[in-house]
Structures are given as C-alpha cells and as structure tokens.
Design a protein that fits this description.
The complex is a heterodimer of chains A (111) and B (113). Chain A is built from no helices and eleven strands. Chain A has 111 residues and is an all-beta fold. In chain A, the strands form two sheets. In chain A, strands 2, 4, 5, 9, 10 and 11 form a six-stranded mixed beta sheet that branches. In chain A, strands 1-3-8-7-6 form a five-stranded antiparallel beta sheet, with no helix packed on it. In chain A, a hairpin with a 5-residue loop joins β9 (86-93) and β10 (99-101). Chain A is globular. Chain B has 113 residues and is mostly beta strands. Chain B is 0% helix and 45% strand. In chain B, strands 2, 4, 5, 6, 9, 10 and 11 form a seven-stranded mixed beta sheet that branches. In chain B, strands 1-3-8-7 form a four-stranded antiparallel beta sheet, with no helix packed on it. In chain B, β5 (43-49) and β6 form a beta hairpin. The relative contact order of chain B is 0.33. The chains are: A mainly beta (111), B mainly beta (113). The interface between A and B is medium-sized, with 23 and 23 residues.
C-alpha cells in the first residue's frame, strides 16, 4: 500500500544551485512531516521537520514548504554543496507515532 | 549526538543458520524500532517496542522476531535464514511523546547465501 510518493528518484544539481524534492501523501491523519538525510553506509538522520499548521519552515539552507490542501510538501536545499550529496527521505507520522518513509531521492551535487 | 550501536555491521552467512542482530542504545529511550531497507530504497518498519516486555509488529511482515528484556537492548532474531532475508536492517530509538526524532544506528548489512 503506497501511501507516500516521493519524486524525483534521483537529482543532479550544480554546486550553488537549488535542490527540490517533493512528496505527496494520501492519509490526512498524518500530522508530522520530517525529512531524513542518509549518507552511504550510515543510518538516516533527522534533517528538518514540520507540522501541518505551518506552511513553511527554514533552517539554514534547508526549507520545507507545506501545502495541506494539495497534500504535498517539499524540501528545498539552497546553495547546494557537494557535501549535501546523499539520499533524502520524506516521512509521515502515523497515529501509533511510527513513521512511513518515502521512496528516497538520491541527490548528487557536482562541483 | 545519538548513541545507538548495531553489530555486526556486515554478515554473510549460509542458508538455515540462526542469526541475531544486536542493537543497543545508551540514551535511555523507551521506544525502539527495527526497519528493513533494500539498497537505495525506502525503509519499512518491521518491529517496534514501547518499552521493556513490549514488542509489536510493524507495517511490513517479517519472519524475524524481537525481544525487549532491557531498555537499552533490542535484538532481532532470524531462526532460519533464507536468501530472501538478504537486506539491510536498521535499528532506531526515540524518546516518548509526539514528534520526537528517531535516532538511527548505521545498520547491519545481511547477506544470506
């Protein structure tokens, strides 16, 4: 049962450019939307998170934009750096306080 | 900085063997989780625990079992490994309460021959 759709599957961005990753969900009961970053050989780590009563949240170069009516939210990475090259997962919290993860986006930032 | 440890990091073993993947955390977190992740793919929750003596099955059906005898320890066991069990297994923990982040270990990459 696919409840989360993440796109694109892979993304190549020039250094200094903007990386944009999108996620769409179906279950309106979700109430917490984190993004996780995973480097090769490592476990995912929380990057930034948002609640649905907020339309945008910014932390440094990372911004989440949330569109509740469209049931979509996106991650924007400004001034992308080679060190940002990783796989990014959106996630959604269920009622049991567990997370559903998206399919992941492999970001490559080229110098 | 989260302190959650998984051993072994890599395991290559033959079919039919019993396997235990270890996970320990030093943060005193009540809730712990096991995820299965194929390379480059999404994470699927296979087990979780609210605390000592609590275990629940996750969203993805798994032939593995877990136990939670101590707060800091959440091992996962496969009684008879099969090639279909080949995957990466990630352990995580979190504090109780809403919106607490999950802290992940670096995973065990399991290959069953």
């Amino acid at each position: 049962q696919q409840q989360v759709k993440q796109s694109p599957q892979s993304l190549i961005v020039q250094k200094g450019g903007i990386s944009i990753i999108n996620c769409a969900y179906e279950n309106t009961a979700f109430d917490y939307f984190p993004w996780y970053q995973q480097f090769p050989g490592k476990g995912p780590a929380l990057l930034i998170a948002i609640r649905p009563d907020v339309s945008e949240k910014k932390e440094g170069r990372f911004t989440i934009s949330f569109n509740k009516s469209a049931k979509q939210f996106s991650l924007h990475i400004m001034d992308s750096q080679p060190g940002d090259s990783a796989t990014y997962f959106c996630a959604f919290r269920t009622g049991a306080n567990n997370l559903f993860f998206g399919t992941g986006t492999r970001l490559t930032v080229i110098p | 900085e989260a302190d959650i440890y998984q051993t072994p990091r890599y395991l290559v073993i033959g079919t039919g063997k019993k396997i235990t993947l270890e996970c320990s955390q030093t943060m005193g977190h009540d809730k712990m989780y096991w995820y299965q992740q194929d390379p480059g793919m999404e994470l699927h929750l296979i087990h979780y625990s609210y605390g000592v003596n609590s275990t629940e099955k996750g969203d993805l059906s798994s032939e593995s079992t877990v136990s939670r005898i101590r707060t800091e320890h959440f091992p996962l066991t496969l009684e008879s490994a099969r090639p279909s069990h080949t995957s990466q297994y990630l352990c995580a923990s979190s504090s109780p309460g809403a919106n607490q982040p999950q802290h992940f270990g670096d995973g065990t990459r399991l290959s069953i021959l």
